[in-house]
């Protein structure tokens, strides 16, 4: 296997956080890699294993708080320009996002992320995953990998055969398994904090909550909300997902699509499907006073966080409230203890409230306040 370490520069604190700046795609990867205003990453590893067809990028944004932790995305990058360039940019942006997420989750981990280039349906083999594991292992623990889009618990079990710095494994292989249980629990805590900030009590009792996407995370969230006394309305492009929820909880109502959901009379909107849920079309149409959900990268472009604030809608930053999953995989590294991980995920309530307080004090949207708090923790970690 060939290892190319592109750079290993010490971390500099970014002035702009990841909020609304997820894709500085007008820049080249090398500009993003070195420029502190776009990230200032520590290290990038380009990996190729000809025998298995593996091409991968491992990006370490920061190890200021500890070993970089973040998942492995397996994606085809059908870019009109060069797919490799798109993959590097994705890895850089995702790694940077993980630094912020891990910092605010209170984890002693920096941010990193890997991407494997190619269609997982076509090229994912045991040989390829083992080769990938050897590359992650070559970093000697500076980067700890886990699942992301296109990789699953079973894949991490394979990677772990070559690499001890692998988490998100199955219980049979000594791991914690599916992370959606604690992700949903963390989103619920963020929603309770949002209720406290909006209506003066940390409960969704009597509130109408609309969930777009009732997959792994969304359906667990339904259960928390019903238990808390909320009225729940859901939508999903997959009829089976809705039917599963309605079979277990007949009191839940369903609407045809996300557009119908956000225009219906809601107190809280919970995007739990794909990224980009909040854009120039959806924000003006929202009836909800609170947005809090599991989906990653909910803000479609920079400025949406301000549009939400201008409309008096409280936005609980996605990467803060959906950190239950990364809290789980970080705990697994110490021998998984569900109660310990759940206690840590419960702190998402306090963190979300602290972000709202900071936003009010600084006169900025909560998404920007989250970035500031994360940068503060990274800077303190570096000094310690
Ligand atoms: N699983 C985790 O632990 C975790 C952790 C952090 C963040 N997230 C994020 O949370 C979101 C949900 O994750 P998940 O694990 O539940 O995924 P999932 O694939 O199990 O569920 C997503 C659901 O959304 C539905 N969906 C897709 N497009 C839709 C649309 N346009 N309108 C309505 N429904 C739609 C799908 O049919 C599916 O049922 C994703 O954005 C994911 O990145 C998940």
Please give a structural write-up:
The chain is α/β, with parallel strands linked by helices. The protein folds into 2 domains: 2-101 and 109-173, Leucine Dehydrogenase, chain A, domain 1 (Rossmann fold, 3-Layer(aba) Sandwich), CATH 3.40.50; 180-323 and 351-375, NAD(P)-binding Rossmann-like Domain (Rossmann fold, 3-Layer(aba) Sandwich). Helix content is 43%, strand content 17%. It has helices at 29-34, 83-104, 120-123, 126-138, 153-159, 180-199, 216-227, 239-248, 258-263, 282-285, 304-310, 318-321, 324-332, 338-346, 348-362, 366-383, and strands at 2-8, 43-49, 54-62, 68-75, 110-117, 143-147, 208-212, 231-235, 253-254, 268-271, 290-291, 314-315. A 6-stranded mixed sheet has the order 1-2-3-5-4-6, sandwiched between helices. α2 links the parallel β4 and β5 (110-117). The radius of gyration is 20 Å and the shape is globular. Mean pLDDT is 91; it is low at 1-17 and 20-26. Nicotinamide-adenine-dinucleotide (NAD) binds next to α6 and α7. One of its GO terms (cellular component) is cytoplasm.
